[in-house]
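STRUCTURE:
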């Protein structure tokens, strides 16, 4: 039996004894105990109430393929090849495999949990089950590899637009593509390019990790937040978020193809968390005041020797303390 079936039963918030669950599902109490242990390992927050049974600490907002597809199709005529999976190594890795098999033009994969979620610069991405969004899309862009310049910044704008549409404003962007709320990271974007270039078409695998319901993550070292922590007055539905994000990313990618990065520059600048702040790069070797991005999407620092443009992927920027 899948952990998801048991969690769905516990989703009423009540305490269920091991015996009642065992009877209901026609398995032994030991089998129930094993599933609970597996669910705990996957990151579900289940309390054991001694002498009484099991209870979910908070309701799980499961992803639902049908709801997401219906929502996306109601606002766009775009056919959607969406897979919603319980567990995957990495949604980016899965989109790469789908593109390599050539089965769909714009594959979209979202998962309840990732066992090998990856972040930028080889960092792992914390992916507890049922809490957050792990979403990847395979975008095909014409114009060769240079056509992809600026795409990751454009995606930051698309994600910020979607979150603000759903009520999370103001949403900030930390160059090159971290999503910030109230001075802490709420999400990140990883863009990976598929090696093959056919007829000038590049496949960009766009992966978004967004913290939604998460309230604890001891493994994350930097300042982080989640939508539930930062905007607790709103009810966050992962299905509504995923649908809005898919639509916003696909629309932004279409607009990027027709007008280029210029169409997004001012939207990016208005959300720049580094603007006018004292920041450093290259482990402190380079220090200056944030000036925003130039026409190519490089970040400009005003140093005592003049303005220096920092290239995406070259180095990372951080606040000088
Ligand atoms: C970052 O380091 O800020 C980028 C994090 C990107 C994480 C997402 S989660 C969905 C997709 N699958 C992955 O393995 N990574 C990206």
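SEQUENCE:
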């Amino acid at each position: 039996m899948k952990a998801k079936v048991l969690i769905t039963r516990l989703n009423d918030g009540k305490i269920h004894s091991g015996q009642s669950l065992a009877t209901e599902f026609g398995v032994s109490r030991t089998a129930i105990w094993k599933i609970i242990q597996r669910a705990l390992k996957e990151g579900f927050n289940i309390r054991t109430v001694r002498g009484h049974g099991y209870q979910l600490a908070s309701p799980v907002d499961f992803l639902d393929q049908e709801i997401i597809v219906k929502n996306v199709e109601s606002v766009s005529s775009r056919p959607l090849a969406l897979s919603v999976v319980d567990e995957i190594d990495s949604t980016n890795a899965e989109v790469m495999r789908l593109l390599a098999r050539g089965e769909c033009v714009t594959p979209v994969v979202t998962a309840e949990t990732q066992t090998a979620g990856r972040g930028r610069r080889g960092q792992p991405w914390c992916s507890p089950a049922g809490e957050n969004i792990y979403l990847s899309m395979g975008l095909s862009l014409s114009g060769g590899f240079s056509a992809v310049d600026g795409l990751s910044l454009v995606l930051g704008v698309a994600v910020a637009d979607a979150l603000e549409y759903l009520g999370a404003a103001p949403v900030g962007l930390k160059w090159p593509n971290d999503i910030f709320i109230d001075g802490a990271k709420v999400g990140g974007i990883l863009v990976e390019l598929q090696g093959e270039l056919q007829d000038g078409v590049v496949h960009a695998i766009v992966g978004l990790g967004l913290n939604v319901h998460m309230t604890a993550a001891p493994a994350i070292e930097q300042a982080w937040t989640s939508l539930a922590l930062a905007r607790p007055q709103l009810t966050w539905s992962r299905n509504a978020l995923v649908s809005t994000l898919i639509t916003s990313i696909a629309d932004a990618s279409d607009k990027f193809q027709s007008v280029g990065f210029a169409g997004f520059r001012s939207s990016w600048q208005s959300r720049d968390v580094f603007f006018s702040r004292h920041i450093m790069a290259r482990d402190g070797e380079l220090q200056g005041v944030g000036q925003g991005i130039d026409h190519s999407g490089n970040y400009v620092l005003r140093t005592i020797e003049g303005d220096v443009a920092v290239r995406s992927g070259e180095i990372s920027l951080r606040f000088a303390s």
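REMARK: Residues 274-317 form a domain with the SH3 type barrels. fold (CATH 2.30.30.100).
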